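Troubleshooting entry. Yesterday's outputs looked truncated, so today I'm pasting the complete records for two proteins to confirm everything comes through intact. If either block looks cut off, that's the bug. Protein one:
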Amino acid sequence: MRAAKGDQIVQHGRVVGQHDQVSEVVEVMGSEGSPPYRVRFPDGHEAVMSPGPDCQIRHRKEQGPPQ
C-alpha cells in the first residue's frame, strides 16, 4: 500500500449499516509512501494509522470532483 500527502484513505464499514470512514493523508511517515500515515478526519481530529485490509487508498488524481 502506497499513499502520498493529499490522498484519501477509505476505511470500509465492517458491519451492515456502518458507513465508510474517509480521512486525508497529511503526512507519510514510512519510506517511499509506505505506512504509517498521519491522517485528518472530517471532524478535524488527527491520528496515526497503518491501514489494514478493510482500507483503500484513493489517490488525488482519482478522487474526482469534491462532493
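Protein two, checking that the full record survives here as well:
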Amino acid sequence: MSQIDQFIADFASLVWGIPLVILLIGGGIYLLIYSRFLPFRYLGHSVEVLRGKYNNPEDPGDINHFQALSTALSSTVGMGNIAGVAVAIAVGGPGAIFWLWISAIVGMATKFFTNTLAVMYRGKDSEGKIQGGVMYFIVEGLGKKWKPMAAFFAVAGLVGALPVFNVNQLTQAINYILLEPNGVQTGFGTSLVIGIMLTIITTIVIIGGLDRISKTVSKLVPAMVLLYFVSVVAILFVHYDVVLSYFSMIFTDAFAAENYKGDPLLGGVLGGLILLGIRRGAFSNEAGIGTATMAHGASKTSEPVREGLIAMLGPAIDTLVVCTLTAMAILVTGVWQTEDVNGVSLTAAAFDEAIPYVGNYLLLLCILAFSVSSLFSYSYYGTKCLSFLAGAENKKYYNYIYVLSILVGATTSLSFILNLIDGFFALMAIPTMIATLIMAPRVMKAAKVYFETYK
C-alpha cells in the first residue's frame, strides 16, 4: 500500500509541474487581460441575473441560474474549503492564502470564459437531450477531430468526480469531533459504518437525478455558508485583538515564505509556496478544471454570456469568502503552529479553542452539509462523463462505482486520496484550458454584443 501511495504522490507531483501552472494560471491571467476586466465591471448585473430577473421558462435547459450556481457551488464549497485550506496553511503558513486569493481572482475570469462556452456550444447525448460541459464544447466548438481531447477530459472526470476526499475528511471529522471525545474507540470498523450510512443517503438523492440534486443543494448551500460565516465571525470576535496582525501576515508571508515547510520549486521556497496556493485554490474553486461547466451547461438560458457571469461568482464566494473564513479561524487561534497537518482536525482545533464545548459541533454541522451536498453534485458530473463516453443509457453504471467509492474514501489515508484527486483534476485542466484559450475570441465577440444590448 505504501508503494501505491508513493506512486500516486509522484504522479500528482509530475502533472502539477511548471507546464500546468503556466497553462492554468498563465492562461487565466491572459483571459483576465484579454477580457479587459469586462465581466468584472458587470458584477451587479450578474447578481440581478442570479436573483431571477431575466429568467425565461421557455429557454432551453433543465435548471435555473440559481440552481446551476448552487449545484456548482455545492461541489466546490466543500472539504476543500475546510480541510484543503488547513493543509495549505499547515504546509505553507499564512502566505499560502495570498496565492489562494490570486488563483481565485484569475479563476473568476477563467470561469466566465469556460461557462459561457458551456452554454454557447451545448451538444446532445445519445438520447437526444441537450447537454453542456467541456467535452461537448470541445466537439461542438472545435469539431469532431478534437473528440479525442474531449474523451480525455471525460475519462479523467470519471476519477476526478469520485467523492473520496469529501468522504475521507467527513469520516475523520465524525471520528475526531463526535466519537473519540465520547469514549468510542475509532478505527476501520467505525469508518466503514460511517461510509455505509453516507452510501445510503447519497443513493437516495442521486437516484432522483439532476432535478432532485439541484433542488436539494439550492436549499443546503445558502444555509451552510451562512452557518459557517456566523461561526467564524464568532471566532474572530473572541480573538479580535490579533485579527489585523494575522490578516497583514498573509501579505507579508506570501513573499517571505518564512513558514513554508514543503518542497521548493525551481530551487526556491517561494516557488513552492506559490504552487501550493495555486494547487489548493484549484482544488477549492475548480476554476480551469471544467467540472462546473457540466452544471452551468444545464442552465435554462439562451444567453451564454449570462451564464458565464453567474459562474464567475463561484470563485468569489468559494475562495475569497469561505476559504478566507477558514484561514482566519486557523490563524487567529494559533492552532496553525501545531504539528497537526491532517486536514480537518486542524480546523476543528480552531473551533474548539475559540468556542469551547459547542464550536466543534457547529463545525461538524457545517462539514456534514458541505460534504453531503458535494456527494450529490459530483455523482452528476461523473454520470455526464460516462454518458459522453459510453452513451446516456449507460450512465447509471457510474453511480454503482460512485457509491462503492464512498466506502473506499471512508477507510483510506488522506495523502493517497488527496494526491489521487489532485492528479486527475490536473489532467482535466489540460483540455479545458487549451480549448478555452482557442475559443476565447468567440466568447469576447458574444460578450460585446450582449453588453451593448444590455446597455
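Both blocks look complete. Sanity check on protein two: Strands lie at 123-124, 130-131.
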